[in-house]
Amino acid sequence: MTDSTLLHASVSHLRQLLKDRAVSSEELTEACLKQINATNEALNAIITVCPEQALESARAADSQLAKGESKSLTGIPLLHKDIFCTRGVRTTCGSRMLEQFVPAYDATVVSKMKAEGVVMLGKCNMDEFAMGSSNETSFFGTVKNPWDLSCVPGGSSGGSAAALATGMAPLVTGTDTGGSIRQPASLCGVTGLKPTYGRVSRLGIIAFASSLDQAGPMARTAEDCALALTAMAGMDDGDSTSANLPVPDFHGALNPNLQGLRIGLPREYFNDDLNADVRARVMAALSELEKAGASLIDIDLPHSHYAIATYYVIAPAEASANLARYDGVRFGYRCEQPSDLEDLYLRSRSEGFGEEVQRRILVGTYALSAGFYDAYFNKAQQVRRVITEDFRRAFEQVDVIAGPSAPGVAFPFGAKQQDPIAMYMEDIYTLAVNLAGLPGLSTPAGLINGMPVGLQLIGKPFDEQTILNAAHRLQIDTDWHTARPNLEAITS
Amino acid sequence: MNWEIVMGLEVHLQLATQSKIFSGSSVQFGAAPNEQADAVDLGMPGMLPVLNEEAVRYAVKFGLGIGARIGDRSVFDRKNYFYPDLPKGYQVSQFFAPIVCEGMFEVPLEDGTLFPIRITRAHLEEDAGKSVHDLFQQETGIDLNRAGTPLLEIVTEPDFRSAEQAVAYLKALHSLVTYLGISDGNMSEGSMRCDINISLREKGSETLGTRTEIKNVNSFRFVERAIYSEYERQADILESGGTITQETRLYDAEQNVTRSMRSKEVANDYRYFPEPDLLPIVIDSDYIEAVRATLPELPGAKRTRFTSAYGLSEYDAALIVPNHAMADYFESVVQLCEAPKPAANWILGDLSGALNRNDVGVEESPITPERLAGLIVRIEDGTLSSKLAKQVFDAMWEGEGDTDEVIAARGLKQVSDSSELEAMVDEVIANSPDQVAQYLAADEAKRKKLSGFFVGQIMKASKGQANPQMLNALLLEKLQNQS
Amino acid sequence: MSVSPQDVEKVALLARLTISESDLPEVTERFARVLGLVDELNTIDTQDVVPMSNPHDMEQRLRPDAVTRSNEREALMASAPVQEQGYFLVPKVID
C-alpha cells in the first residue's frame, strides 16, 4: 500500500485495515508524521507535534489490536485543535497568552477519544481564542489553504481543516462557536460537524463564548464524522450544560435512504445576496438529494438577518468575561517587571492578546456595561429567542434545513482583515445555528475555479443522525468529498 | 446637629458544606496555601462549575428559617471585576434572581422585645481567595484555598438605627444559622463576615444620606466600634459643612478608625450577566416541603416555649436560647431534675462563669447535664445548702465525681436530722447564758439580730452543714422556751 | 450609537486593556463599525420576549457534596509565572 493511499483513506477504511493487520497503527502514525514533516512548513497547520508520544500510543494500539481488544478508534491518528486542553502537552489556543501553557488535565473530549484508542499526533493551529474566520489572528502565524497557498483556510478551526485536507491525519477535532468547524470545512473541502449544543462536553475546552461553543469532528466522510461523534459525545457531570441524553451509535444507525426526507431551503439564504457560483454548487448538491428521494421545500427564517448582530453582542460579551482570567497571575503570559498590580493586568493582557481578541473583549465589555446592558446584551438575548423560534417553526414543516456553509470560496490573505464586518460576514449562514444550539454540518459540494464549496445541512436539536444520513447519501452518490488539493507544490 | 444613623447590613455566611460550591475541593479551614484549590478554583482554562446540592439546600433552609419566599427559578450571574484573589476575573453570584427573596427577621433585643428587620434577599455565591500582604517584601501572596467556598450573602433593608440593633441582629442571625446547622458562624475564622452600609441624616428627615460601606468586620465588638467610629467621622464631616464620599472603607481595629480602601478606588462597573456555564436552579414545592420537614425548632419558637412551658423569664430565655448547645443542655438538665428555674440559674450563673473562665463551650463542659441535674436534686431535697452546693459544683468541675460522690467523699451532707440539730442547739444555749439573757431582754427587732450569734456558733459546730431552715426554726423555739 | 475615543478608553480600562494613543483613532473607528452592526438590533420589536441565555430549557444539575479533589498544588502551579512558598505572587497590593 502506498503512503498516499493510506494518507487519504477514510477512518472507516483505516479501521478495517488495522483490524485486518494490513497496516499497523505504528506504520500509519509514521506515515502521518512524515506527511506533517513534509507539508506543515508550507501550511503552518500544526502548532505542536508530539511524535514520541504518538508512536508510543500507536504501539500500544497495535498490541491491543493484536489481542483483538480494539475500541471504536483504536490506532487511528488524530490531531486536536489547540483549544482542547491536553495533559502534559502545550495548549496555546493560538495565543501568545498561552504560548507556554501546559495543562495538568485533559479535556473530556480528549480523554474520551483516548479511551476509544486514538493516537494523538499533535495540536492544530487556529484563530486566537477561536476568534476569526480566516486563521489570520493566530499568534503562531496564518495557516495556508492547501488548495491555494495564497488563500485562507477559513477559521477558526483552519489548522484542523488544512491538516485533514493534506493527509496529515485522517481525523481532526474542531470547535464551532459561530461557524468555526463548518466554514473551514467548506473552504478546505472536508466534512465538518458541529453537534447540538450540549451534545459534547465543553469541559477542558478553552472557552470563547460558553453558550455557543461546541466541539465536533472534521473528517473525510460523513461516515467518519458519525464514528467520531459517538466517541466524543455524552453527558459529562463536569459540564452543567451537557445534555443528559444517551449517545446513539450514529455510525451504526447511518441510513442512506432519504425517501420522504423534507429539506427546507430558507428564502433568506437563497436570496439575491447569494453568490451565483455558490448557489449553483449548493443547488447541484441539493438536486442530488432530491434525486435520492428527498423533497425540497421553500421555508422562511424571517429573522435570519439579525443573527449576525445578535451574535456579535452575545459572543463578545461572554468572551469578555471568559477571558478575564488571563491576568498574568496563575498561568499564561505575564509582562516583564510590572510596576504595580494595574500595570501587571494592563500590560499582560495587552501584550498577551492579539488585536481581534482585544476588539471583541472591548465590544463585549461595552455591551455589558452600565447603561448599555438592556440595549445590547438583554436585547440580543431576546432576539436570540426570536431566531430560535424561527427554526422551531420551520422544523414543524421540514426535517433538515439546507444552505451554503459560507458565502464564497477561500479568499486571499488580508482581503478582509482590515474590515472586521466583512470578516464577520463569512459566518452569515452559520451563526444562527449556534444561537439556536442546533446541529450543523458542512459537506463538500464541488469546486468553483478549483476551490471547494460546502453545503450546509442543519438538523433539529439532537438529531445529528438525519443530517449525517443526508450527507452520507450525498457522498455515496457523488465524489465531491474525495477531491483533493494538489500537494506537489506544498510538499517539501 | 442631631444625627440619625441609618444602616443596612450585608452578611457573608460561609456554608458548612464539605466541598466547595462549584468544585470537589475541601473547604476545611487552615490548609497550607493553595493546597485546597483545584483547577476549577484556580479558574484554569477550560474549567467549568458544577453546583453543590448541599449549598442549595442550606440556602433554602435559611430562607424557610426567616419565612422568606424561595425563588422557584433562581439564576447565577457573573459579577465582573479584576482582583488577584478573584481567579476568573468574575465572581459567580446571583444578581437578577436570588434563591432567597424577601423575608422578615425578628431580632430579640435585651429587654425581651422583638425588633423586625426586613431581609431584602439572600443569594448564593462563591468566596474569593486571600491576599497575604506581610509575608513577602515586594509582593502580595495569593492563596486561593478559600476561593469557591460557598457563601450565602444576606442583605437587609436599611432598617438599623443603632449599633446595638446591628449587633443584636448579628447575634440573632448567628444563633439562627447555627440552629439551622448551615454554618458554624465563626466570625474569627471568617465564616461570618459583615459589611455595614452606613449613612447619617438629620433626625426627622426622610431622605437617606450618602452612605459608605465598611467591609469585612469580623467580630460583634468590632461591628459596634466600627459603627461608632464611622458615625463620628461622618458627623464631623457633615457638621463642618462637608459632604460624604460614597466609598468602601475598612475598619482598622488597632487604631479604631475606618479608612478608605485604595484597592477599590477604580470605579467599578460589575457588568452582571447570566452565567452561561450554569443553568437555572429550579425549586419546586415538593423540594421546599422536604427541606421544611428537616427544620429544627428555631430560636424564636424555642424562646416562647421556654417561657411558657418552663416559666423562664424573657430575660433568661433570651440568654439561654441563642446558644443552641446551651438550650439543649438546659433541656437535658430540666428533664432530669424537673426544676427549670434553678437549672436556668445554675447554667447562667456558675456554669457560664466557669465555662467562660476556662474558655470552653457548653458542649465540652466537664459537668454534664446529668451531674448538674443531680446537684439540683440534692438542693431541692434539702441535702445541700446553696453554700455546700457551690462547693460540690466546684468539685464536680474539677472532676471529683457526681454530686453524691462528692458529698460522700467530702462529708458535705447537710445536717437535717432534728435530734442531732437539737443537741447542738441545746449545747450552744447552755454554754452562752449571757447571750441568752441579752436575747430575752431585747425587743422583737433586736432579737433577730442577736440570733445571728447562735446560728454562727451552731454552724461552726456543724462545720457548716446544719440545714439553715431547720436550724432557725429550732433555735427560735428553744430560745423562746428559755423565758 | 456613536462612540468616542474616550468611551473606548473607559471600556478598555474596565477590561484592563491598554490602547496606545496612536492606535486609539483606528480602534475607535473599528469599534464603532462593530457597534453600528449590532445597532440593527434596535429595529426589531422584542417586547415580552424572554431573554435566552442557553439554547436548551434545561435545569441545573446538582453535584453531591463530597470532597473529590486532593492537593494538586504542584501540578497546577507548574504553570504559574511567579510563585513562592506555595503562593502566587503579584506586585504589592495595598488595601
Walkthrough of the structure:
The complex is a heterotrimer of chains A (492), B (483) and C (95). Chain A is an alpha/beta fold and 492 residues long. Chain A has one domain: Amidase signature (AS) enzymes. Helix content of chain A is 38%, strand content 13%. Chain A has helices at 3-7, 11-19, 25-43, 51-66, 108-115, 158-165, 182-188, 222-232, 276-291, 307-322, 341-352, 355-368, 373-394, 420-424, 431-436, 464-477; strands at residues 46-49, 77-81, 119-124, 171-175, 191-194, 215-219, 262-266, 295-299, 400-404, 440-448, 451-459. In chain A, the strands form two sheets. Chain A has an eight-stranded mixed β-sheet. In chain A, strand 2 (77-81), helix 5 and strand 3 (119-124) form a beta-alpha-beta unit. The longest helix of chain A has 22 residues, at 373-394. The model of chain A has no long low-confidence stretch (mean pLDDT 96). With 483 residues, chain B is an alpha+beta fold. Chain B has three domains: 3-289, no CATH class; 299-410, no CATH class; 418-482, Arc Repressor Mutant, subunit A (Orthogonal Bundle). Chain B is built from 15 helices and 16 strands. Chain B has helices spanning 53-65, 163-180, 220-239, 285-292, 299-310, 314-320, 324-337, 340-358, 369-380, 386-397, 403-410, 418-431, 433-441, 444-461, 468-482, and strands spanning 3-14, 51-52, 73-74, 77-80, 90-93, 103-108, 114-126, 130-132, 139-143, 150-156, 192-202, 212-217, 248-252, 257-260, 273-274, 281-282. Chain B has an eight-stranded mixed β-sheet with strand order 6-7-10-1-11-12-13-14. In chain B, strands 5-4-15 form a three-stranded antiparallel β-sheet, with no helix packed on it. Chain C is α+β, with helices and mostly antiparallel strands. Chain C has a domain at 5-41: Histone, subunit A, CATH 1.10.20. Chain C is flat and about 55 Å long. The two termini of chain C are 38 Å apart. The model of chain C has no long low-confidence stretch (mean pLDDT 92). The interface between A and C is large, with 74 and 52 residues. Strand 2 of chain B pairs parallel with strand 1 (62-63) of chain C, so a sheet runs across the interface.
